[in-house]
Design a protein that fits this description.
The complex is a heterodimer of chains A (395) and B (312). By secondary structure, chain A is an alpha/beta fold. Chain A contains 12 helices and 16 strands. Chain A is 42% helix and 19% strand. Helix content of chain B is 38%, strand content 12%. An 8-stranded mixed sheet of chain B has the order 2-1-3-4-6-5-7-8, with helices on both faces. Chain B has 12 helices and 8 strands. Classes of the chains: A alpha/beta (395), B alpha/beta (312). Chains A and B meet through strand 3, helix 3, helix 4 and strand 9 of A and strand 2, helix 4 and helix 6 of B. The complex binds thiamine diphosphate. Thiamine diphosphate (TPP) binds next to helix 3, strand 3 and helix 5 of chain B.
């Protein structure tokens, strides 16, 4: 039976994991993800899942064990944050390169140093080139729904790539929201059985995996992997649509909010989308033609969708919670800019880095971003491309 | 254990055509281990000489399932495979009555050093996996650098012999001892004694938990001896008690020495044929031999004490 209950983002992720009842979970605790692995360990102890939980000795081993389990033909999920994702970094590439359909729930937290347990998106944005699908969630309901969708996306025979589901630490992971939880059976039916194309355990039909691959073949292997990631967009879309048709909630690859006739727009991902929506509503009531573009699917980057959404905008700001020190611009900004160039579309585009290390990104600050965009829209001139929101001493 | 006649008729699940050096100990170890397995095992390898030479795309020398992931994580990868076996058996997707044998085969670098944490985690959690370390006492794949398993005084490309320093400054890490402290089935073996090694592999594979076998694997390139002496050097390692054959059972409580030389040879017999110890025999360097011998004696006596204690 479907029901609506109060859950945190972490609780919603754990609940989805319980209903998926994966074969293997290998995970390690780290704030603000810990609640997921703790809650899941309770499910194991009470017997509400049949999962083998491998309480590994590090995140590097968590991702390594996930690779082994996935290669053995087991449906495999893990979760982490921040330093944990950084420690996995080496094996993230391997999971994608070996085409293991692992699902990883990443509760976004900044990276040391200085050490800080709070939210920003440096961890997963820093892993953007690992070859994983990355989906960013705005709230806890979306986390719940996306974790379920992620299993189907990863295991689709046309995809066979690992999927990272990202949610902002504390802002989403620790706030209680009313969550519509599906019936256990509905989730089981939706995710279906994992039917791996091969298994390491099939000793009659042995496979050799992880070969040394020299220059003669390496490039083609990597391209076919990158091609699969590009092509996965269609599957991400269709799984989301099927989910929507069955359960009444879908999110799209990107979502434009009040963009149809907008003149200025904020492009962002994760929990900042929600605040930007509220500010947009307020500005709209004052006659300002503001809008929001939410990027839910960040890898593969939805070039067509982003450009289609922004092409008539006079000025847009990409807001993200991560720095790319020394780069011409931070990651998401650079990707949006690249997408516009692909299509030969010019939009006055600026960047706002915000909320590093858990600094709050309140509505009044987002309002200032819109004010900046209004100035650019009316003058037709970009005064400054790289901007830092609420950074003391910066002017 | 199978007789020699039976073994000669068994298919070896590792073929020729790999790219390992002449005289390399790794394929000898692999062949013995595979022959000892009751049925085709799942092989997991960290990055090392054996891995980069036996599975070069689009070829493979392995006729059994094989997985290489990274350098420091073979034990963790194997833990995941073993968890998958349990999970799939629980769900009826695998025959619950069938045994799946998972064997990690790693070099000493991927075992003693960078893979030490993953190994410890696997042993502590008790996954039913056999980890075999083919101990060639250095990072051979990257060109003979020192490892935690390199013996005292040995020349390597990161422990040179010069005016200020004479080879590696530290003694070997005693990994079997550490592994035994985890409560796993642990054994030391040597490739010259195939019967002893194969018996241990068979025992480990039937053990309900983790096991660790360290096997002496002399490397002609790295140790600087002729390719036809691999087995002989291994024999000398054991006859001098530098590399004794023993096993540890009952969660680290029962230590058994499997072979005691009638006539314990002086360590010089082992050192002399190896170019990596050439400086031991130069003027004013006798202290290296003395120090090496003293450590061999200390460890051998310690082992004898442990064996005696557990026999009481
Ligand atoms: C994280 C990481 N560091 C370093 C390396 C380079 N590397 C590959 S194999 C190897 C040494 C392997 O030595 P060992 O485990 O003793 O096996 P051997 O080659 O001697 O058989 C090194 C240093 C690597 N692949 N990954």
């Amino acid at each position: 039976m479907r029901k609506t209950i109060g859950l945190t983002g972490d609780g919603a992720a754990a609940e989805a994991m319980r209903q998926i009842d994966p074969d293997v979970v290998a995970a390690y605790p780290i704030t603000p993800q810990t609640e997921i692995v703790e809650r899941f360990a309770e499910f194991v102890a009470e017997g509400s899942v049949r999962t083998e939980l491998v309480a590994v000795e590090s995140e590097h081993s968590a991702m390594s064990a996930c690779c082994g389990s996935s290669a053995a033909g087991a449906r495999t999920i893990t979760c982490t944050s921040s330093q944990g994702l950084a420690l996995m970094h080496e094996v993230l590439y391997i999971a994608a390169g070996n085409r293991h359909p692992i699902v990883l729930i990443n509760v976004n937290r900044t990276l040391s140093a200085p050490i800080n347990i709070h939210n920003d998106q440096s961890d997963s944005l820093g892993s953007r080139d690992c070859g994983w699908i990355q989906l960013y969630c705005e709230g806890a309901q979306e986390v719940y729904d996306t974790v379920i969708q992620a299993v189907r996306i990863a295991e689709d025979p046309a995809v066979l790539l690992p999927v990272m589901v990202c949610l902002d630490g504390f802002v989403v992971s620790h706030n209680v929201e009313p969550i519509n939880v599906l019936d256990d059976q509905e989730v089981k039916d939706f995710v279906g059985e994992f039917r791996p194309a091969y298994s390491l355990l099939d000793t009659e039909n042995p496979v050799c995996l992880g070969n040394l691959t020299l220059p003669e073949y390496f490039f083609e292997h990597k391209y076919s992997q990158a091609y699969a990631l590009e092509q996965s967009k269609g599957v991400i879309e269709s799984v989301d649509q099927e989910f929507g048709a069955k359960f009444g909630r879908s999110y799209g690859i990107v979502e434009g909010y009040r963009l149809e006739d907008a003149e200025i727009a904020i492009v962002t991902l994760g929990s900042m989308v929600g605040t930007a929506r509220a500010v947009t509503d307020e500005l709209r009531s004052q006659g300002v033609k503001a809008g929001v573009l939410k990027i839910r699917c960040y890898r593969p980057f939805p070039i067509d969708e982003v450009v289609a959404a922004l092409k008539n905008i006079k000025a847009a700001a990409v807001m993200e919670k991560a720095l790319s020190p020394g780069a011409p611009g931070p990651a998401v900004f650079s990707d949006v800019l690249g997408a516009l160039y692909h299509k030969g579309v010019h939009v006055n585009l600026i960047s706002y880095v915000a909320g590093l290390g858990g600094r709050d990104v309140p509505a009044r600050s987002i309002r200032r971003v819109y004010e900046h965009l209004e100035k650019i829209a009316s003058s037709g001139r970009v005064d400054r491309i790289l901007n830092y929101l609420d950074l003391r001493g910066w002017q | 254990m199978a007789s020699l006649r039976e073994l000669s008729q068994k298919e070896v699940l590792f073929t020729g055509g790999h790219r390992l050096c002449a005289g390399c100990p790794a394929p000898i170890v692999v062949k013995q281990a595979l022959l000892a397995a009751p049925r085709a095992p799942i092989i997991v390898q960290p990055t090392c000489c054996l891995e980069i030479s036996s599975a070069v795309f689009p070829y493979t020398a392995w006729k059994t399932p094989y997985y290489h992931n990274a350098f420091e994580n073979a034990a963790a990868v194997a833990s995941g495979i073993e968890a998958a076996v349990k999970a799939l058996k629980k769900r009826g997707k695998l025959d619950a009555g069938k045994d799946y044998y998972i064997i990690c085969i790693g070099g000493d670098g991927g075992t003693y050093d960078i893979g030490f944490q993953a190994l410890s985690g696997m042993l502590e959690r008790g996954h039913r996996v056999l980890y075999i370390c083919y101990d060639n006492g250095a990072y051979m794949n990257t060109g003979i650098q020192r490892s935690g398993a390199t013996p005292y005084g040995a020349w390597t490309t990161t422990s040179h012999v010069g005016e200020a320093q004479k080879g590696k400054q530290q003694h070997r890490k005693d990994l079997a001892w550490i592994a035994a402290a985890h409560g796993a089935y642990v054994a030391n073996a040597s490739l010259h004694n195939w019967r002893d090694f194969m018996r241990k592999v068979e025992k480990a594979l039937n053990y309900e938990g983790s096991s660790f076998i360290n096997i002496q694997a002399p490397c002609p390139r790295g140790w600087r001896f002729p390719e036809n002496m691999t087995v002989e050097i291994a024999r000398l390692g054991t006859e001098t008690c530098f590399y004794p054959l023993f096993e540890v059972e009952d969660r680290g409580q029962k230590w058994v020495i499997n072979y005691t030389p009638k006539n314990k040879l002086p360590i010089t017999e082992y050192l002399k044929p190896q170019g990596r110890f050439a400086h031991f025999f130069q003027k004013d360097n006798e202290y290296l031999i003395e120090e090496f011998q003293a450590e061999v004696d200390r460890r051998w006596e310690h082992l004898q004490r442990l064996a005696k204690m557990s026999a009481e």
